[in-house]
What does this fold into?
Amino acid sequence: MSFWSQAFEIARVDLTVERRLGDTIRIVLPFAVVALLVFPLTLGVDLTAISRLGPAVFWALGILFGMQVALRQAAHDDQERRDLYALLGVDPAARFAGRTISGAVLMAGFLAVLLMAMIVLYSPRLPEGWLGPMILSSILVAVGLTELGTLAGEVTAGLHNRTALASLIVAPLALPLVIGASQTLEAMARDAGILPWLLILVATDLALAVAGVGLAGPLEEASR
Amino acid sequence: MDRLIDLDQIDVSLGGLPVLRGIDLDVGPGDSLGVSGPNGVGKTTLLRLIATLLTPASGSGSVLGASLGTPRALAIRPLIGLLSHRPSVIPELTLAENLRHAARLAGADVAKAEKALRVVGLDGVASRRAGASSFGMLRRIEVARLLITGPRILLLDEPFTGLDAEAQELIGALVARTTSDRGAVVMVSHDSGHLAAHTNRLLSMSLGRLEQKS
It folds into this structure.
């Protein structure tokens, strides 16, 4: 079976499992929306401030709760399944790619719902033509965060408290994604170019993809 | 190939603790070896070593001609089948979906999965979620998976635990098929009676060392 066939098969099964478990839709998403709802309450009745902070709160909550989406697979990935995949001849890099595909699809959906909730709750003043760059940056964040989560899951495989450790790895490394995504919209509002910020996101995604594919095999062997 | 499994003075440590010590083992085509011993003496670790899932701390060895701990050893993994004492399934998928998933990843024809389901007697409950299935059913799914992949080396970890007579016969048939195809079987269990009935050579294990069965 080819690399991409294995990757798509793993992604397909991951999404089937997620559809049946509903971790993201039933647990992570409601909490993220509640956090979005609670935040303006702490600012009192300053509607201008609430409207201005909307996109920033969206990215902060999107990335924080998105980490939970990205790391959810680490919790399900036990030694038996890793052994089984190895003995079925699954390329560890294909497993990384598959996990990234499924996680990115899930995360993109999660961010889309959170974005709509933010627009309804905060009524932000968005610059003209915001939708295209927002969709693009959301997709790039979804891919990057999933790559980071999958990589952190691999690094911590076999360790005790791996989910907590993985979060500690993801948080600082997600910084370029936070900056790139939040500044894309800010740059549009200032009538400045958004290309540098989008390039930061693309470069981060590419670097994580190279690291993930390159390290998948050695990390899998080291986890045993 | 004279020897499918050839281990020479191998030590294995897990988490810094020695688990296997000075393991010498030869298994040739058509051989079936039983290893008995109480819990915690290293039987599962021995199987994971042969499955190339562990690297020796010292000593040397080869499986299907590939030296352990080398990149070539990773390439022969699809020729090895491991029936673990904890069935490896995805609980949210049905029994049939688990099997089809394994077939696709192994690059096998998915139709083989349907046939294997019938052989292990699970075609009537194929749409049951694995997470809601009994241990015996999950064991049968693992047997079905081995029927699809047709491994050259079959490694069985406590294969008869929790199985009814019919399922035990399936394991026996799998062992017979592998040895008649000039493959090798290594079976570990704390139950010497089952081992004697299904293997042609017996060893015992004590504190990480293999010994001739007395």
Residues 3-222 of chain A form one domain.
